């Protein structure tokens, strides 16, 4: 989530080799696609064999290819070209690992994050797994530190993994709620609200191209947005009014 924190990387090599693609070749294509989609090269990182933008959002080869497709709407809060297909994905199950469940603050934060989304009456619902009737699944795992990582949707499905820092166990539950809600936002296509700026914790990820689409009805700056790239001075774990407008517009 926050660019100053370490980012846990899911085994990218294993995922890519399963598709018969050399990881280095695939990563080169991902970086190229991201640059074409409007992400400046300095905002793209390759960490332990995986490609990240904004410090916490992992981009797969498929997702980077979809970002090159023409997006709809205006070019505030921002989204990727990639969104989930709500005609198919109506129920998303968040499945915490045993390690995740062993941290009480993370476990409670997950319940609160799920409630944040479900309270908005969106076209999809989130459910804590294991559960039945799931159209998509997201695994909630752990990482070191007080940050998190996830990725963007591809193929109409949300990104299938979030990783949350176990260091949050020492903080109030609102911190876990904030980080988890933020990472789930990435999995359904939300970018950092301050992605275009390098001031403060802004990641300077680039302001043009189809990879960063302005969501109508939201301001270009929202210091209370849960999707900003750094934690606010006061953490509540709740959406800002413009986060809610953005989510209702998209879903």
Automatic annotation (TrEMBL):
<protein>
    <submittedName>
        <fullName>Protease</fullName>
    </submittedName>
</protein>
<keyword id="KW-0378">Hydrolase</keyword>
<keyword id="KW-0645">Protease</keyword>
<dbReference type="InterPro" id="IPR024653">
    <property type="entry name" value="Peptidase_M10/M27/M57"/>
</dbReference>
<dbReference type="Pfam" id="PF12388">
    <property type="entry name" value="Peptidase_M57"/>
</dbReference>
<dbReference type="InterPro" id="IPR024079">
    <property type="entry name" value="MetalloPept_cat_dom_sf"/>
</dbReference>
<dbReference type="GO" id="GO:0008237">
    <property type="term" value="F:metallopeptidase activity"/>
</dbReference>
<dbReference type="GO" id="GO:0006508">
    <property type="term" value="P:proteolysis"/>
</dbReference>
